[in-house]
Structure formats: structure tokens, C-alpha cells
Automatic annotation (TrEMBL):
<dbReference type="InterPro" id="IPR016867">
    <property type="entry name" value="GcvR"/>
</dbReference>
<dbReference type="InterPro" id="IPR002912">
    <property type="entry name" value="ACT_dom"/>
</dbReference>
<dbReference type="Pfam" id="PF13740">
    <property type="entry name" value="ACT_6"/>
</dbReference>
<dbReference type="Pfam" id="PF01842">
    <property type="entry name" value="ACT"/>
</dbReference>
<protein>
    <submittedName>
        <fullName>Amino acid-binding ACT protein</fullName>
    </submittedName>
</protein>
<feature type="domain" description="ACT">
    <location>
        <begin position="5"/>
        <end position="77"/>
    </location>
</feature>
<feature type="domain" description="ACT">
    <location>
        <begin position="90"/>
        <end position="169"/>
    </location>
</feature>
<dbReference type="InterPro" id="IPR045865">
    <property type="entry name" value="ACT-like_dom_sf"/>
</dbReference>
<dbReference type="InterPro" id="IPR050990">
    <property type="entry name" value="UPF0237/GcvR_regulator"/>
</dbReference>
């Protein structure tokens, strides 16, 4: 089996997921994993599909035929992520929204050689205080060589600097 990673985006409307699922099914593919969302009126997502090697080209053609309904970009998956050493950590971030929060947090994680495996972010109105709140949940792979105490110290320093709460688990 060949793994394909699809990125999809288009104006949100009913039937977008069904169109992709129909193409995958019609070509003997299997929908493995996905992250799909509507963001500011645009439907966007990342989908992992497996398909027999001899059917890859026809599935790719069917997916490209969705142009106009969705923009679909196709990448061939790799097994590199499946062989990562290390454990996982989760962190949550909550604070007043401002530009640069993701940049700052991802910079600290990168400086400690952590690899982000998932990140969910959202901004919303702060009901009682006014303004906007930023909230994020991050899962990252930690290499065996990482100094978790130093990571914790750097995250605490960052939290104080940008005035957010960061909880590491």
C-alpha cells in the first residue's frame, strides 16, 4: 500500500468531504486519518489515505479533477514519523491574544529539538474582560536527549514575558 497525504481547501459548502471520500472509495483507497475544519468560511484539511500502488495514479487523477470544488495537493507519505525516538508531552496555552504567540512557543520547542505532532489553536472573545483570548493545545515529541528541566524553565520564562499561562504535562 502507498500512503498519500492530501491537503484540501475550498469555499465551505455541503458535500466537500463526500467528494473526496467518493474519489478515495472509487479507487480502492482507505481514509486513514484526517484533520478537517472550517476556518473563516474556508473548508481546509489534511487527510491520510492508503491505496494500492497500482491505483495511485488513477486516484491522483480523480482527486485533481476536484479542482473548482476544492484545491487538492497530494504528497506521498513516508515512514519517517513512525520511527521517531522519544516520548510525548502536551502543553496548553491560555492568555490574551496578541501577534507572535505561536512564533514564540514554537521557537522554544524547536530550540529544545522537540517536534510538534499536533497543534490546535483558537481565539475567542473574552466574555468578562473584553478583548480576545488565545488558547492552544500542543503535543510534541521529545527526544531522549532533551533536558526537560531546561525546557520547563524556558517555557515559564516565556509565559511571564508574553503574559500567558503555559501548562506542561
Amino acid at each position: 500500500m502507498t500512503t498519500l497525504i492530501l491537503t484540501v481547501a475550498g469555499a465551505d459548502r455541503p458535500g466537500l468531504v463526500a467528494a473526496v471520500a467518493d474519489a478515495v472509495d472509487a479507487h480502492g483507497g482507505n481514509w486513514e486519518n484526517s484533520r478537517l475544519a472550517e476556518l473563516a468560511g474556508t473548508f481546509a484539511g489534511v487527510i491520510e489515505v492508503s491505496v494500492a500502488a497500482d491505483r495511485v495514479a488513477e486516484l491522483q487523477a480523480a482527486l485533481r479533477a476536484l479542482t473548482g470544488l476544492l484545491t487538492v495537493t497530494i504528497h506521498t507519505g513516508s515512514d519517517a514519523g513512525a520511527h521517531r525516538d522519544g516520548s510525548s508531552i502536551s502543553l496548553s496555552v491560555l492568555g490574551n491574544d496578541r501577534a507572535g504567540i505561536v512564533h514564540e512557543i514554537s521557537g522554544v520547542l524547536t530550540s529544545h529539538a522537540l517536534s510538534i505532532t499536533s497543534m490546535d489553536t483558537e481565539t475567542r472573545d473574552a466574555a468578562m474582560a473584553g478583548g480576545r483570548l488565545f488558547e492552544s493545545t500542543v503535543t510534541a515529541t521529545v527526544p531522549a536527549s532533551a533536558d526537560l528541566d531546561a525546557l520547563r524553565t524556558d517555557l515559564e520564562k516565556l509565559a511571564a514575558e508574553i503574559q500567558v499561562d503555559i501548562t506542561l504535562a
